[in-house]
Specification:
By secondary structure, the chain is an all-beta fold. It has one domain (11-75): Thrombin, subunit H (Beta Barrel). It has no helices and five strands. It has strands at 18-25, 28-37, 48-53, 59-63, 73-75. Strands 4-3-2-1-5 form a five-stranded antiparallel β-sheet, with no helix packed on it. Strand 1 and strand 2 form a beta hairpin.
Length: 78
């Protein structure tokens, strides 16, 4: 297999995507990307997203690249 990612994530297409925490905390397992945080200035690269827990609607801001960590996150609701 080559070193290129099979399914690269695009931060502009993450909005409303679904994610599952591999190790849930406080019954928070399923998440939705509720916001893509635009950089200042707008020409800059997108760095952060807002994840909303389905269980209790709690919000956390994380670097969007953290979603690539397969030991922490799985795409979709599993």
């Amino acid at each position: 297999m080559n070193s290129k990612e099979q399914n690269p994530l695009n931060p502009k297409k993450l909005l409303l995507s679904k994610w599952t925490a591999v190790k849930p905390t406080h019954k928070r397992k399923h998440f939705l990307v509720s916001k893509v945080i635009l950089p200042e200035p707008p020409e800059g690269a997108i760095e952060f997203i807002e994840l909303e827990a389905v269980f209790d609607k709690s919000i956390q801001v994380i670097p969007w690249r953290d979603l690539k960590e397969t030991e922490a996150w799985l795409q979709g609701w599993v």
